[in-house]
Description:
Number of helices: 5
Shape: globular
Structural class: mainly alpha
Number of domains: 2
Order of helices and strands: HHHHH
Amino acid sequence: MNSLISTVLKEKTDRIHVQLFRYAIVGGFAYVVDFGLLFGLTETAGIPYLLSAAISFLTGLATNYALSIFWVFKTRSMENRMAEFSIFAFIGLAGLGFNELFLWAFTSLMGWHYLLSKLAATPLIFLWNFSARRFALFSSPKDIVLTSTEGE
């Protein structure tokens, strides 16, 4: 049991199911940071909500990045950390765009309540963010399966 807990919570690993579990925790924590900061900056500090939303989103993104490189992903495929963060952020922004598209489609086209639409979109966006980040930033070339041309 100690070995399992150590593998899931402590050790650096390339096991995708452990990374997915950890990424869910990291994403949840980053969301709490984002949401809490949005509320705090708007309600307590009196900052306009759109500016608060931008600050809180970027803080949540930075939190997700820091925890992902520290705890979720073992392998980092880029040496340039600024480029790595830029790609990480771009994937997050693409996820935000997909989220908006899904919310609009589920709510406006299919007639679902917006909260149901958000529930349906969340796992799709989660899988997008995890898969794109793992593939683009946190995998070694040996992890990418290509069609073999040996023997031809």
